[in-house]
């Protein structure tokens, strides 16, 4: 790889980094030129979202950082409301497995009304939306195992969603891409911009970055029995434990705080599995009013709210 061509103009480059997202075609083009294609893991989620922006009134949930409403044990539907600059809310309603939120405003509000809390529907009911409902679908979360490639072209690599594209509801893709960019910086400092070892060294580091969000997202996605795909080793057990962690978040501030740090890629997944944390999680999950999403745990008598 010697450079790029943009709008007909050629630019030489020592290194081309393709951040062309989930639908990148570069890896397919390389495969057509005789380089191995990376293996891919995918989890079928059939996510459908509808987002609209509404004004935030001065007395709207004044202390709220963000609102998330779902009950995975009962329904595939969820809603999220995040404050944005300029006194606005970004509202996203979504569902998995063929239950897309409608785009017609009244039906959209009805969809919000079906959620376990009326908070989002109430905000929709008392404001004039600033945008129409914008829709997005994602059939699968997927990961390309670039770290397993035994041959890569010199002077070229991919980064970001091109490596791992996660269920956006877990909100980890940008953090993952940023951490990959940091890992690339370190790999360049160590091996040099033009080293033939650079891509493989970077891909090994990128795999470490991606591993935690991929496992977390896949674990959460597999909590839904309709999710389909090859589970990584330990995912079933991890799912059951994370299900408990999420229930424990309702009754334990230390568990909730550490879970948020892990979800936002500020702490390692292993930090939720230290002996002290496991004890906290077990005790707090028993007190939690939230229902277990895992049928085995429900049958075993975990509290159902
Ligand atoms: C609905 C939705 C909500 C999300 N919410 C969050 C969130 O809250 N938090 C979070 O962390 N992440 C979120 N994500 C994920 C996040 O957007 C992605 O993980 C992140 O943008 C990935 O960055 P990227 O640069 O790898 O790819 P992208 O942001 O997809 O950028 C790729 C760019 O490359 C361009 N491109 C593609 N092919 C070519 C080509 N041949 N030539 C030139 N340009 C090309 C594309 O047009 C695009 O602009 C969300 C994603 C979606 C879809």
From TrEMBL:
InterPro entries: FAD/NAD-bd_sf. This is FAD-binding domain-containing protein. It comes from Acrocarpospora corrugata. The lineage of its organism: Bacteria, Bacillati, Actinomycetota, Actinomycetes, Streptosporangiales.
């Amino acid at each position: 790889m010697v450079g790029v061509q943009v709008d007909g103009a050629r630019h030489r480059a020592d290194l081309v980094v393709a951040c062309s997202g989930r639908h990148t075609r570069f890896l397919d083009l390389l495969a057509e030129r005789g380089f191995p294609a990376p293996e891919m893991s995918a989890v079928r989620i059939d996510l459908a979202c509808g987002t609209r922006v509404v004004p935030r009134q001065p007395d709207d949930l004044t202390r709220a950082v963000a609102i998330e409403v779902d009950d995975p044990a009962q329904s595939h539907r969820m809603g999220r409301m995040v404050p944005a600059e300029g006194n606005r809310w970004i509202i996203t309603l979504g569902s998995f497995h063929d239950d897309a939120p409608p785009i017609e405003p009244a039906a959209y509000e009805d969809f919000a009304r079906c959620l376990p809390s009326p908070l989002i529907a109430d905000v929709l009911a008392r404001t004039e939306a600033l945008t129409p409902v914008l829709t997005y679908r994602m059939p699968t979360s997927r990961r390309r195992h670039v770290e397993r490639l035994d041959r890569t072209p010199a002077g070229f690599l991919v980064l970001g969603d091109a490596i791992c594209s996660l269920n956006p509801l877990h909100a980890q893709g940008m953090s993952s891409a940023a951490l990959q960019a940091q890992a690339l910086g370190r790999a360049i400092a160590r091996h040099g911009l033009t080293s033939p070892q650079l891509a493989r060294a970077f891909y090994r580091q990128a795999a470490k970055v991606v591993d935690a969000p991929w496992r977390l997202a896949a674990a959460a996605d597999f909590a839904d029995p309709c999710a389909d795909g090859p589970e990584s080793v330990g995912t079933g057990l991890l799912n059951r434990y994370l299900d408990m962690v999420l229930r424990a978040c309702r009754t334990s501030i230390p568990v909730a705080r550490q879970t948020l740090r892990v979800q936002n890629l500020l702490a390692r997944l292993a930090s939720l599995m230290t002996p002290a944390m496991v004890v906290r999680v077990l005790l707090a999950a028993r007190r939690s009013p939230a229902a277990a999403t895992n049928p085995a745990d429900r049958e075993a008598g975990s509290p159902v709210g």
